[in-house]
Amino acid sequence: MSWSRRLAFERAQNPSVAAMSKQTWIITGASRGFGRALAESALAKGDYVVTAVRRPESVADLEARYPDNCLIAKYDARDITAAADLVRDTLDRFGQLDVLVNNAGRAVVGAVEEVSDAQLRELMDLHLFGPAALVRASLPAMHARGTGTIVQMSSQAGRMSFPGVSTYSASKFALEGWSEALAGEVAPFGIRVMIVEPSRFRTDFNAADVLEFAEASETYRDLLSDVRADLAGADGLQEGDPARAAEIIVSLAHSDEVPLRLPLGREAVERISGAYRRGLDEVERWAGTARSADFEGVPASVRPI
Questions:
Q1: Which of 33, 111, 138, 274 is exposed most, by the fewest CB atoms within 10 A?
Q2: Which residues is 28 bridged to in the sheet?
Q3: Which helix (H) or strand (E) segment is 178 a member of?
Q4: 21 vs 63, which has greater pLDDT?
């Protein structure tokens, strides 16, 4: 009997226990950083994990340690045409899909006038269009079972922004808006969405071979010099622990409730809270002017949401 058939048979004999004790994950960008930490945490818990990576050799050790629970899939998160095959391979091997983690990502640093159209589009492909395709490919399997968790790895920069990170923030803001709507659409079917918003964690995000800097222009060189230096110098000094973050996410995926948004790290909590307060203060300051744009005497419309 093949592994996938044996696994399906075992789950069929005791589906309630199997659903409670083991979950099947797809994790993109699992070669390092958050993705690697999540894969290690889920596998250590006894779950089944499909590591979707561009370099299969980067996770070969995980497959060697967990041969029955780990499947390596060569996958480029920007390739929307590959999403259906990844889900099909997951179902063929493990029989179900419980948790999808769209984790693959990186940043481009530079002023709006310094970042090219190609760089902006590439990050939108990586952080929005790729994840969207994989979610669409995954939902039929989750609908069929009436359960599932979609984890979207965003950033504190997905709720606030600052000079020099417009490209990265644009892609994460887009992912968050798309995911918030998705959460409302799939909740009636037992499917949860959790948007994770980390601050600085000790991953390779700030490493020289990952973080991309647009060519500095004379106009913005001095204005963004501190931002560039800060981001380039953060590698290895970040306060966040990826292993602890992964344990939190895996624990929540196994729990009865997940938050729509989960800031991770003290800095994320403080900065995102501050952004909400500043936004509310600005709305209240200009509320009178804003309300004056309506027709006088016309009642507010009744909306479905």
A1: 274
A2: 52
A3: helix 166-186
A4: 63
Catalytic residue among 168, 171, 179, 220: 168
Q: What is the per-residue pLDDT for 13?
A: 41
Q: Are 187 and 267 in contact (CB under 8 A)?
A: no
Q: Of the residues 155, 171, 172, 220, which is catalytic?
A: 172
pLDDT category, 8, cuts 50, 70, 90?
very low
Q: Tell me the pairing of strands 191-198 and 148-153.
A: parallel
**172 an active-site residue?**
yes
Q: Is residue 75 among the annotated active site residues?
A: no
Spot the catalytic one: 31, 41, 138, 154.
154
Torsion of CA 94, 95, 99, 101, to 10 degrees: 60
Query: Structure pTM?
Result: 0.88
Tens of pLDDT along 44-57?
A: 999 999 999 999 99
- 3 has pLDDT over 60: no
